[in-house]
């Protein structure tokens, strides 16, 4: 009868292999748990952020800030949370604080198109039109950015506020090209196409 005799080396090798397998399984399980926990925290942060934005729209600013702080506690590296804080501070007219959070967002994700769009709006409100345009155009360089129509509209409205009618109309036409069914944009274009002297 043939049989396999394990030498002491064979047992050590088998034990090492088993321990390695056990370690890998434990490590993978821990990684999976960590990924799952991170996903849960990210989801919780997103939920808090959505709630905060609703409170901002309802002008319930204390509740909004509480939920923003909760979102930040759940996920401190989520760019959208910093954008949420910046938006909050804009709504309560704390412009310098809003800028701090836009800058934090850009430190986390320098190419984030949403942040550049929102920061462009911030600059436009501060009547710094060149800086605003720079951020709008940077956002629009991202080929996967799906809010291009909104950003072109923001750029158009900012150019209009600056008194640059031709650029405003050009940007608005680009917004319409990205959102051809947006009737409000077409109405605005008709209004802007009338010389300003006739509308004053």
TrEMBL record:
Leader peptide range in chain numbering: 1-32
Gene3D superfamilies the record matches: Tetratricopeptide repeat domain
Keywords: Repeat, Signal, TPR repeat
Positions of TPR repeats: 79-112, 149-182
Alphabetical list of InterPro entries matching this protein: Pilus_4_PilW, TPR-like_helical_dom_sf, TPR_2, TPR_rpt
Source superkingdom: Bacteria
Family matches, as PROSITE patterns: PROKAR_LIPOPROTEIN (PS51257), TPR (PS50005)
Pfam family, one: TPR_2
UniProt xrefs under NCBIfam families: type_IV_pilW
Name used for this protein in its record: Type IV pilus biogenesis/stability protein PilW
């Amino acid at each position: 009868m043939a049989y396999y005799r394990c030498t002491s080396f064979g047992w050590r090798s088998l034990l090492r292999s088993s321990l390695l397998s056990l370690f890998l399984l434990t490590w993978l399980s821990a990684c999976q748990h960590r990924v799952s926990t991170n996903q849960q925290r990210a989801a919780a942060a997103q939920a808090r952020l959505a709630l905060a934005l609703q409170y901002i729209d309802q002008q319930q600013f204390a509740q909004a800030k509480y939920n923003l702080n909760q979102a930040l506690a759940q996920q401190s590296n989520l760019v959208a949370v910093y954008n949420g804080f910046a938006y909050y501070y804009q709504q309560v007219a704390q412009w310098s604080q809003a800028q701090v959070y836009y800058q934090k967002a850009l430190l986390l994700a320098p190419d984030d198109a949403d942040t550049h769009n929102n920061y462009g709006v911030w600059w436009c409100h501060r009547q710094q039109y060149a800086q605003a345009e720079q951020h709008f155009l940077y956002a629009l360089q991202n080929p996967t950015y799906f809010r291009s129509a909104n950003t072109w509209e923001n750029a158009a409205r900012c150019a209009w506020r600056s008194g640059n009618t031709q650029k405003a109309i050009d940007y608005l036409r680009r917004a319409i090209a990205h959102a051809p069914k947006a009737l409000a944009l077409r109405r605005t274009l008709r209004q802007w196409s009338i010389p300003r002297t006739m509308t004053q």
